[in-house]
Amino acid sequence: MSVMQISVQLDNVPGTLSKLTSILDNEDITAKAMLAASTAESSTVRLVVSEPSRAAAILESFHFNYEITPVLAAEVPLHPGGIKAILKHLSNSEVNILYLYTTIERIGKETIVILGVDKIDEAREILKQNWIRLVEDEIYSL
Predict the structure, then answer these.
(1) In the Cβ-directed half-sphere of 46, how many Cα atoms lie within 13 Å?
(2) With 60 as the cut, is the pLDDT of residue 107 above it?
(3) CATH no. for residue 33?
């Protein structure tokens, strides 16, 4: 099972990100991970939320331009170079990492990284074969 990510296109003006998060908050939808990146005119906000299907319906009702895509959620090993344990295996297998971002770190525990890749099923198997723990089933309950 993949984690479902919602990517929302926003105008790059003050208050649009606040409006988006307020709408989700008012519906008791929790952002588990978030990445916002902007260009001069627009921003893309990538979100992993507690209830992606319901969030999509809400965004639709508010006329947001959004897309839902599968991503991977993996624990970064808790040692120096831990992220390299993930990146090198994917790179060696020619899986392209399109983007990555982390969730809020759980104190004393591994950080969770969200990975957007070009070959999701292949990436999942590579990580499992190399003892990288995927938390796809658990991410929504964090």
Answers:
(1) 18
(2) no
(3) 3.30.2130.10
